[in-house]
């Protein structure tokens, strides 16, 4: 239980919550507004993360340009995914999107020469002889840590610096997204959640609207990938397993898919579940071995989701009427 | 002048041929009804004209331009809109939002206009005013901010019709607007249609099961059976047509 009273634990939980929050904001736009079920969102995260690592390490790009191009590539990934498969109806698109993420991951895994393969970005050949790609953001993180050390001592960690960078961006994105969802653009999308024929009969190009939503969501997925790349300083294919997409979905369902404002709190709640299950050591959970306990996380997430679906299908913050209305 | 011209169109879905060589044209400002038994191809015909399905052969033109190759949304934005059998409303949008979505030329529909909030909100206000005005005419202002899912069947019909009118169309295709509606509401719907005709130059093409209902409002009746037009003329002349009596009216011919 000691872990829970240590600030370091909570700082880590909050930093991860911020990154996953931005990630699930992408899903919120895609599913909550546009009704597009994207089960391959983690692919966008992988694309941006790896694009940054490859461009910085192999081509000596500046981190910032690499991040910009990386997010643009995630947007392009969203566009390609949409153009090729968005004409499929809901469930079929969801399956195709899983394939997209898996193709991305397997390509990363098998293109050793470019991506470092199974060993991750540390194995990318670097003409300068070392493996990192976070030198430039590190300057900012170190600056923040240095400023806070006199006040917080050892608690002024790198995690804290990441937290202080990620959360303002998260709030900024939440604000932009909330504004976006008040436009008539979003209203057309909310109509397409239910029915294509009506908006079409009113002159709306449903496919274009959906594609735009998919691309915007992918941009947020990509930005989350950039934060992820900075937080962990190295990337490996197993960071981008399918389960990561569903972590994002869990936050979304907790928050209530149709409301943007719950995302921050749902992300913290998820971050706690995600981080805490590593450290729970009281009986009877202490009977389990450490690797077994890591499955507890997935088990707990399942229990929470089922309980939520039974009691509050609209999520913690959604409008019940909008979710269950027939 | 003919606003809509349909020339020898056909379509087949697998082995079924719902529309087989249909030709007719509709005069601007007129009110035409299409009647026929179940499976006559009426709704299929509407789906072809509105671009929901594509024709296999023939030609459709609207205001002198061919439209059968266009997407449904492109046809709609040219001023040819439709309502749906059984009245489709977007249940999880409010009643007002259902209508506001229909106002054409909304700059807020473009993502780039996200950066010009002033022009967006100005248009939104305008759209809201139009929506409230329209709701007032059908006596539904008190439902403006409720989800459309709570409306009764009849109210949904009114909303569906009002929404089509909100697009400021030149022509509306109405798919069985009176089906399953009680007689008083039929009268109300007819009233709305009549007042729309008076105020705006809208051409109506309507599908209906029951000849009696559309007798008074229609200037012309087209009768379909088995994917073909079997009669076309003034409402009264339809009763005298032998083919129609056999295929559709049966024993319900006049005086029976």
Number of strands of chain A: 0
**Largest interface chains and counts:** A-B, 28 and 42 residues
Strand content of chain A: under 5%
Name the average pLDDT of chain A.
88
Fraction of helical residues of chain B: 25-40%
How helical, in percent, are the residues of chain A?
Answer: over 70%
Overall description:
The complex is a heterodimer of chains A (326) and B (256). Chain A is an all-alpha fold and 326 residues long. Chain A has one domain (8-238). Chain A is built from 15 helices and no strands. In chain A, helix 2 runs parallel beside helix 8. The longest helix of chain A has 27 residues, at 7-33. Helices cover 36% and strands 25% of the residues of chain B. Chain B is globular and about 60 Å long. Chain B has nine helices and ten strands. In chain B, the strands form two sheets. Chain B has a six-stranded mixed β-sheet, with helices on both faces.
Key phrases:
heterodimer; A: 326 residues; mainly alpha; 15 helices; B: 256 residues; alpha/beta; Rossmann fold; six-stranded mixed β-sheet; four-stranded antiparallel β-sheet; 36% helix; globular
What does the secondary structure layout of this molecule look like, with pairings?
The complex is a heterodimer of chains A (326) and B (256).
Chain A: H1 2-5, H2 7-33, H3 42-59, H4 63-85, H5 90-110, H6 112-115, H7 135-152, H8 158-180, H9 184-192, H10 197-201, H11 206-232, H12 242-255, H13 263-276, H14 290-311, H15 320-324
Chain B: E1 2-13, E2 16-27, E3 31-35, H1 42-49, E4 57-62, E5 65-66, H2 72-77, E6 80-82, H3 95-100, H4 117-137, H5 153-166, E7 171-175, H6 183-199, E8 203-208, H7 211-215, E9 220-225, E10 228-233, H8 235-240, H9 242-249
Parallel strand pairs in B: 3-8, 3-9, 6-7, 7-8
Antiparallel strand pairs in B: 1-2, 1-4, 4-5, 9-10
